[in-house]
Amino acid sequence: xxxxxxxxxxxxxxxxxxxxxxxxxxxxxxxxxxxxxxxxxxxxxxxxxxxxxxxxxxxxxxxxxxxxxxxxxxxxxxxxxxxxxxxxxxxxxxxxxxxxxxxxxxxxxxxxxxxxxxxxxxxxxxxxxxxxxxxxxxxxxxxxxxxxxxxxxxxxxxxxxxxxxxxxxxxxxxxxxxxxxxxxxxxxxxxxxxxxxxxxxxxxxxxxxxxxxxxxxxxxxxxxxxxxxxxxxxxxxxxxxxxxxxxxxxxx
Length: 252
Known about the structure:
Elements: H1 2-28, E1 31-37, H2 43-54, E2 60-66, H3 71-77, E3 83-87, H4 96-103, E4 113-117, E5 134-140, H5 147-150, H6 152-157, E6 160-164, H7 176-186, E7 191-194, H8 203-214, E8 242-245
Parallel strand pairs: 1-4, 1-5, 2-3, 2-4, 3-8, 5-6, 6-7
Helix pairs in contact: 1-4
């Protein structure tokens, strides 16, 4: 009973801070998206391609969550967008207080899209509201078509499902239709995109959807999508990288 009480109090406190974050985002006209997935599903690769595809259409900012390193933040910073890294030091999810600390380090006055890349995990992040407008869950076809059934809470709490790495389907025993049906059984209202961060397949529809939600202009389909992307060689990023340890976590 005491464990349940403590957990309830932590979540209640988190929800209070999340509500303040949400009010802040709305005051600034920022669409905040909480991106969640298992490790290796392609969150950062999709984020990189999205920044390239929407550059010139909408101002973007990024909060990166990682258990130990700032490698993903350095990848994102190469595209010259504001990015703050939260290092959780082993914590399996981001919390609203950590996001609040991160946005205090950012200038969001001109931003319209804020991507919050959560720690790679489909369990804990399902229960923690960060103040986002919606959760976007990314599943890779390499994970199998039964993945939604194994993590129903995340699918239930998400507004969007992005099925990534569809270019690998010829080499896998994975049915996209089965994957979508399994997800729809849990959350019939789920918006689903089928994409490949590698080839760019399906990305145009997703770009236009993001622009519609952020209140920006129409995305032009004649954009030349970079098939190979930038080199992943790590270089010193701009001063927009700010590492934020999770010392202010609500847990502990």
